[in-house]
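Backbones bend. Our protein:
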Amino acid sequence: MVAQPRIRIVAALCSVMLFFSAANAEDLEQLTYHNPGLEVDLGVGLWAWPLPMDFDGDGDMDLLVSCPDKPSNGTYFFENSSNGETKMPVFEPGVRLGKGYHNTCLSYVNGVPRVLVAGQEVVDFKQHGFDKLTKLPVDRNVHGKKVRANQWYYVDYDGDGDQDLVVAVGDWSDYGWDDAYNSEGQWTNGPLHGFVYVLNNAGTDQKPEYEKPTKIKVGDQPLEVFGWPSPNFADFDHDGDLDLICGEFLDQLTYFENTGSRTKPHYVAGRRLHDNGQPIQMDLQMIVPSAIDWDQDGDIDLVIGDEDGRVAFMENTGELLGGLPQFLPPRYFRQKAAGVKFGALATPYAFDWDGDGDEDLIVGNTAGYIGLIENLDGDPHSPKLAEPVYLQAGGRPIRIQAGPNGSIQGPCEAKWGYTTQTVADWNQDGLPDLLVNSIWGEILWYQNIGTRTRPELARAQTVKVEWDGEVPKPEWNWWNPRGNQLVTQWRTTP
């Protein structure tokens, strides 16, 4: 017998919300920490498109972040008020300036920030906000069908003094979408493709005349990454020409050295960025890097957005190792706490986890973590909440991920986990345990081997059922349950 859950809070897209009405996002009210002095990870809703700039003109770098999805759609201004800290300032809470868009990309032209959105420009955004777009004099689709990424930048690609257009596309035509694993768990469709085009400006910046788009190549083949290129052109190796660093749909960054010249670029095969011999990886995926000298030390760093709405700083050390620019691992920016957030597609469950008489929040998210947001004072109307911490099991943070074959939607979802959870005394020993589902669809039991006031979770065990007959499984699962294991649809709450 399983204890009946007491669910009092419903998950809302991207943030933890109180559910007042099912009608519109405008009817949702975000929980706040009510905790003066608390600092948390800087974040917006689902997907962060960072636009690093000195927005308020006070001489330090602020962050604008575009969030394209609901219910947190908007472009947000995070003010740097740290009085001189150049690398990791603690930002003020975000202030919404206007709409947010997919494919919001930042370019600098003669030191001035310019924001492009898929064939359009947000003109004079400091004065007029982000609600009005001006179309560029060129077709916004340079590639063809099944394009998802469509990222536009101003770049003087050939060093002739005017701004060309660079367009990065994510091509899903070979990938398809779902149900393409064979019985061995091998993906039988193709990969994602990420290409970068240049549209040469044969005119001037005042009267541009853009030529037909051509793919940037490595040798005689198109330059390519695994979807969502987010290209960043800068002189990363200090030799006077424009090199290229690209992101991807997953979590790594690729460096393409320019062995040509400033006026005639020639790119060689890409290499992953490394730190101490290991590839640098972001915590999540759908990464969006933006190149800028963030710490104002003379070299070009990276400011990178994640799918879960967080933004990280990757510092360029200024050194080269075997011709490869050296970056430090990503560090996530922090802000003064305001709205409660735990990644994207948060799945909150209210329960008195620490046995102190008030209800805490146990929360899953897309990244596959499960977090605890502790209620610190028990106020029934506006409780003081702690910063989220990852729950651990067997001494390690709980994180469930799809890997190369755990999502029915294919290997491009490798870093997602979609954790959902219920608290219940599963083994009837008087202690609350954790029951979890995820992107895999296998129900896991994390036994509480601690005490009522100091919970401690053991490693996961599968939940088993005394089935009558054949063990069931979802139709699209390429893998079979182990023994009498309970396997159900992914992203459902046990």
